[in-house]
């Protein structure tokens, strides 16, 4: 349901219905508002608006929260990015979403840069074989020895992943995820008592290019939906964190 409500296409359909039903007898201020809202929807359906939203979300993690060379000895936590199909075995890598591939690649590259440290892959999922189990096998194929790998396989959300790892890792951890997901992950891990530093495995932001940057595109609509979902997720997690703090 949230994906439908956050989709610019849903807003466009509602706008067209409102304009069709009210335009002929509407007052000037209502027509002006319809024009403004319609323009905003068009921009959010185009790369120019979608990428501005993505950049706003991704840049909400301050530089002080980014990992530095001083964090090279801190454990790594890779947050799974989901499954697109039920895995038939632990090496059924095609079941992973592109986001999961990119996040694990970012974690493995980070692991290779310094002396070996533990890498925890977090993510359960709805199937008998967890996301973490599939990603853990793939990490071994990419050269991370099994003795350095740990899997958290019960969580179904980022919040649950952070809470499940409490007491199993030191306070300072390097959290690897996509740039759009890092703000929400940071709130969750801080609420769980960690002092995380964040590492972006990839970014959805694309700088301005050709004239197509101003034309509505399906990929732009998807970006807008992702950005709004993550922004609402950050707000929700902050509310949960305040509630958890008040109960302590």
CATH overall fold name of the largest domain: Rossmann fold
**Mean pLDDT value:** 94
Strands, count:
5
Query: At the first level of CATH, what is the class of the largest domain?
Result: Alpha Beta
Side by side, the strands of the main sheet go 3-2-1-4-5
Which class best fits the helix and strand makeup? alpha/beta
- The CATH level-2 architecture of the largest domain is identified as 3-Layer(aba) Sandwich
Note poorly predicted spans: none
Q: Kindly state the percentage of residues in helix.
A: 40-55%
Would you list the SSEs in sequence order as H and E? HHHHEHEHEHEHEH
Largest sheet composition: 5 strands, parallel
Tell me the radius of gyration: 21 Å
Total count of domains: 2
Please tally the helical runs, counting DSSP H or I stretches of 4 or more residues. Answer: 9
Shape: elongated
How far apart the termini lie comes to 33 Å
Strand content: 5-15%
CATH-assigned homologous superfamily of the largest domain: HUPs
What does this molecule look like?
Residues 76-233 form the DUF218 domain. This is YdcF family protein. It comes from Lysobacter auxotrophicus. The chain has helices at 2-6, 8-22, 28-44, 47-58, 98-112, 131-141, 158-164, 182-191, 218-247, and strands at 76-79, 119-122, 149-152, 174-177, 197-200. A 5-stranded parallel β-sheet has the order 3-2-1-4-5, with helices on both faces. The protein is elongated. The protein has 9 helices and 5 strands, in the order ααααβαβαβαβαβα. The longest helix has 30 residues, at 218-247. The chain folds into 2 domains: 1-45; 64-200, HUPs (Rossmann fold). By secondary structure, the chain is α/β, with parallel strands linked by helices.
